Amino acid sequence: MYIEIDFNSDEAIYVQLRNQIFMAIATSQIKEGESLPSVRALADTIGVNMHTVNKAYSTLRQDGFLKVDRRRGAVVAVDIDKLTSMEKMKAYLRPLIARGICKGLTQEEIKELVDDLYDELS
Q1: SS3 per residue for 48-113
Q2: d(CA 52, CA 55)
Q3: Rounded Cα–Cα distance for residues 66 and 74 (Å)
Q4: pTM, full prediction
Q5: What does residue 37 show for φ and ψ, rounded to 5 degrees?
Q6: Are 39 and 54 in contact (CB under 8 A)?
Q7: For the chain, what is the radius of gyration of the CA atoms?
Q8: DSSP-derived secondary structure letter, 35
Q9: SS3 call for 52
Q10: Who is most buried in 9, 60, 71, 88, counting CB within 10 A?
Q11: Neighbouring-strand partners of residue 68
Q12: Dist CA 67 CA 6 (whole Å)
């Protein structure tokens, strides 16, 4: 798994890390049941504080993408509850779509963007 952090970004480092792990899961670079690097190992590899990695892993666990196993550490465990996943996705998308509307994007443009992103990831 390759992680690239933009230290000049306005986006928090743990959010960048979480999003890159989401992308790796979505594009099958990381598969269900695979272990992620330990917090310490990943922090050392990407040059960030262990607490930053821990926060990213915690949010992934809360969102149903990771489980913690005593022997294997952080393991990819995608939440299979589709309804819950849809509700969480709505909560993330609602403010993003509202921002797009405020900037003058049409419904068709937003749908096309979502379709393009979906095609890119699947």
Answers
A1: CCHHHHHHHHHHHHHCCCEEEECCCEEEECCCCCHHHHHHHHHHHHHHHHHHHHHCCCCHHHHHHH
A2: 5
A3: 6
A4: 0.70
A5: -60, 155
A6: yes
A7: 16
A8: B
A9: helix
A10: 60
A11: 74
A12: 27
Residue at token pair 């609602």: 94
Asked whether 65 and 79 are in contact (CB, 8 A), the reply is yes
Give Dmax (Cα) for the chain: 51
Compute the 3-state secondary structure of the chain and give helix, strand, coil in percent, each to the nearest 5. 60, 5, 35
> Whole-angstrom Cα distance, residue 39 to residue 49?
9
Mean pLDDT, 10 residues at a time, the chain of 122 residues: 90 96 88 92 95 96 87 83 79 94 97 94 84
Q: Do residues 21 and 15 make contact, with C-beta atoms less than 8 angstroms apart?
A: no
Structure tokens given for 100 = 């797009």
Q: Where are the beta strands (DSSP E) in the chain?
A: 66-69, 73-76
User: Could you tell me if 61 and 71 are in contact, meaning their C-beta atoms sit under 8 angstroms apart?
Assistant: no
8 Å CB contact between 57 and 15 = no
Return the residue matching tokens 């937003």.
110
Take residue 41 and report the two structure tokens written for it.
């190992």
